[in-house]
Design a protein that fits this description.
Blueprint lengths: L5 H24 L4 H20 L10 H18 L4 H18 L4 H20 L5 H28 L10 H25 L5 H8 L11 E2 L13 E9 L10 E7 L1 E3 L2 E3 L6 E2 L2 E2 L2 E3 L8 E7 L9 E2 L1 E7 L4 E3 L5 E3 L7 E8 L24 H11 L5 H11 L5 E2 L8 H6 L3 E2 L1 H14 L4 E8 L2 E3 L4 E5 L3 E9 L2 E5 L17 H18 L3 H21 L10 H30 L13 H12 L10 H8 L7 H16 L6 H19 L1
Parallel strand pairs: 15-16
Antiparallel strand pairs: 1-5, 2-9, 2-19, 3-10, 3-17, 4-5, 6-12, 7-8, 8-11, 9-14, 11-14, 12-13, 17-20, 18-19, 20-21
């Protein structure tokens, strides 16, 4: 190993790095058995050590088949009695075969097989993740793959006794070539990803994917249910507002996930209405027709383990690649399955509806039901709203009630709603929401408690809102003047709030990068492709209009047709010329074709001589041309004479040169080319 050229040494390590990267991807982005991964990692390290030392392993080869049989038995046992997951069991078998091959001596055939296994592992990891970090590993994998291919071709040539090419490529050049190959492969993948039509397989895979990420919303909430998750700083959603009604501020908008209309024994529960699929047309879900949408929000929702779909205000239309979308008619929208990976959708909404005369469809049932045993709360509502003539006036009086003597606290809250309203008057958003809703019902106004998030942190870098678990909130929706109105009695959080998040500039840029990844890679959809194509067509038309020849309209139709035919005729004539020239060459009128193609070093030297115009006449031999080229470089005369002798023997002799002699001829050709071009 010590005599290996630097470039070949570099390729040798690239091949091992290629195998190791595949194992790393399995460990980071899949649930493959950790013990099997550790065995494979140990085998990889041991194999590298023995390969470097050229350790004889003929005695070890006979243990290969029994070890593979053990892994086969382990995979079968795992499938029958363990995980019962076919893919997990197959991964055990693959890792076993891979471990054995790591330990055994490796010919080029074994190297190709290990690279094939590494590719399968890479694809398995790619199918199991949408993390931004995977892009970095993908780039490294492309670089290592190029090096692995070079190493294996080099090894194949060595096994076949062929000269490797006669060039001592510097290690830095090799590294630059591998880096360029990695960049090229990565960019080619990105282009293919962008232009190949989305088949939306993601919708199918999501059903089999496991939810992960944020928690916090369920069928019920009690005191502390929402506030209990506010210490969590994880991001829940990132929201862009392509269109926002004047006067609305993203930081003041309520992102609603769930509404609760039934109150029993201190617990708010979802209503018992029937859940039905929402009407849809393609990817557009028609969720409301009570107004005209005046705002738009593009929501990227992080993975969660609940089915709730979050919206703003009164949603009218939701665009998203998920179906069916379910609604209970009470404001709750949900996916058809529990939990989801990161998903992106667009909500067209209006923050508030206009009052409607006659108060149509006044909700009753659970939205107005007053719990038993709370007569003192009903009496308090009557005391607060006594003499008020309208629901709006009664509501304003109840809201003002919470502005006197109440305080927000998470360290010393009341233990019950009754204690909150009558004695301690200290609590957090669930206390305010529950107390407000019960007082509204006590005053005869239908109401319900809503849970979700309030505001968030504005990212000025990407112009979007970052919503975290710490923004979790509960508020009230009341039926006033014929529509549901958002009411919030909780004091607004100040700058000193312990739940306020301030991300530094670097953090905002990092979050912006993550948001772009989720938007343009994870959730890149056919609709986005269609929008990009439309925008591209518009750009082409704008460009064409800007550079349009003003006098084109004054040219007659016949002249236009003649110009068009002329433009078409030019490439056609060129192709015809190439075709005729090739036919003549094959017929023997061109250069002889009985000899095999020139090897790379010879061909490069001949091309240099032709480009430098040392071949002055057609039919001039290489000996005459080379003599003319070295006439001004007497120091190259000896190399030229030696090269021509070897060249004639190699090209026209009875048999090819021996590998070592041919390698010398390649060296001489390279040296002459560099000397003549300098």
């Amino acid at each position: 190993m010590s005599g290996r050229l630097p470039s070949r040494e570099f390729l040798w390590w690239s091949l091992r790095a290629h195998w190791a990267l595949a194992l790393s991807l399995l460990a980071l982005y899949t649930d493959a058995a950790r013990w099997a991964l550790l065995v494979a990692a140990f085998a990889w390290a041991a194999g590298v050590t023995m390969d470097r030392a050229d350790t004889p392993r003929s005695s070890f080869s006979r243990f290969g088949s029994p070890i593979v049989a053990l892994f086969l038995a382990a995979a079968a046992a795992d499938f029958l009695f363990g995980s019962r997951d076919l893919l997990a069991s197959l991964s055990l078998l693959v890792l076993g075969v891979q471990s054995v091959k790591f330990l055994l001596p490796k010919g080029s055939r074994d190297g190709w097989q290990l690279c094939s296994i590494a590719l399968v592992e890479f694809l398995a990891a790619a199918a199991g993740t949408d993390a931004l970090g995977f892009a970095l590993f993908a780039f490294l994998f492309f670089v290592a793959s190029a090096g692995a291919m070079g190493a294996l071709h080099d090894q194949e040539a060595e096994e076949a006794g062929r000269p490797p090419g006669g060039f001592a490529i510097p290690a830095r050049t090799t590294a630059a070539v591998l880096l360029a190959a990695g960049v090229g492969g990565f960019l080619a993948s990105a282009v293919l990803f962008a232009i190949i039509p989305r088949l939306e397989f993601r919708q199918v895979l999501e059903r089999f994917g496991r939810a992960r990420g944020v928690t916090g919303f369920s069928e019920t909430i009690t005191l502390r249910e929402v506030t209990g998750i506010k210490s969590d700083r994880r991001v829940v959603a990132r929201v862009e507002f392509p269109e926002l009604h004047p006067g609305l501020l993203p930081a003041n908008l309520h992102l609603r996930g769930m509404v609760y209309s039934r109150y029993e024994d201190g617990t708010w529960r979802r209503g018992g209405t029937t859940i039905l699929p929402v009407h849809r047309a393609g990817f557009q879900h028609l969720v409301g027709d009570e107004g005209v949408p005046d705002s738009t929000a593009d929501i990227t929702l992080e993975a969660a383990d609940h089915p709730a779909l979050f919206t703003y205000g009164h949603p009218m239309l939701i665009e998203g690649a998920f179906a069916p979308l379910l609604s209970d008619g009470e404001g709750n929208l949900s996916l058809s399955h529990i939990g989801h990976p990161t998903l992106r959708y667009r909500v067209r909404f209006t923050a508030d509806l206009h009052p409607r005369v006659g108060m149509p469809h006044r909700p009753g049932g659970e939205n107005i039901a007053f719990p038993e045993g709370y007569d003192d709360v009903r009496a308090l509502a009557g005391e607060i709203t006594g003499g008020a003539a309208t629901d709006r006036e009664r509501t304003d009086r109840i809201l003002r009630f919470f502005q006197s003597g109440f305080r927000y606290t998470v360290s010393d809250p009341a233990s019950s709603i009754r204690e909150f309203l009558f004695r301690k008057r200290a609590g957090y958003c669930e206390h305010y929401a529950s107390g407000l809703s019960l007082l509204l019902r006590g005053a005869g106004i239908p109401s319900r408690v809503a849970a979700g998030y309030l505001g968030g942190e504005w990212n000025g870098v990407g112009k979007y809102l970052i919503v975290r678990q710490s923004d979790a909130h509960a508020w009230v929706e009341a039926w006033i003047d014929g529509r549901w109105v958002t009411l919030d009695a909780t004091p607004p959080p100040g700058d000193s709030s312990p739940f306020r998040t301030r991300t530094g500039t670097i953090g905002l840029y990092a979050d912006w990068l993550r948001q772009r990844w989720d938007k343009y890679v994870v959730n890149y959809s056919m609709r986005m492709q269609a929008d990009a194509v439309k925008e591209g067509v518009r750009a082409v038309r704008r460009t064409g209009a800007a550079f349009r020849f003003r006098g084109w309209d004054r040219i007659g139709a016949a002249a236009r047709r003649a110009s068009g035919w002329a433009l078409l005729a030019i490439p056609a004539l060129y192709l015809l010329y190439r075709f005729v020239r090739r036919r003549r060459i094959r017929a023997g009128n061109g250069s002889p074709s009985v000899l095999p193609p020139l090897p790379g070093p010879y061909a490069r030297l001949v091309r240099l001589l032709d480009r430098s115009r040392f071949r002055r006449h057609l039919g001039e031999t290489l000996e005459e041309t080379l003599a003319a080229a070295v006439r001004s470089r007497p120091d190259l005369s000896e190399d030229a004479a030696r090269f021509l002798g070897l060249y004639h023997r190699d090209r026209f002799g009875p048999e090819p040169l021996p590998p070592e002699v041919r390698k010398e001829a390649f060296h001489l050709a390279d040296r002459l080319r560099k000397g003549i071009s300098s």
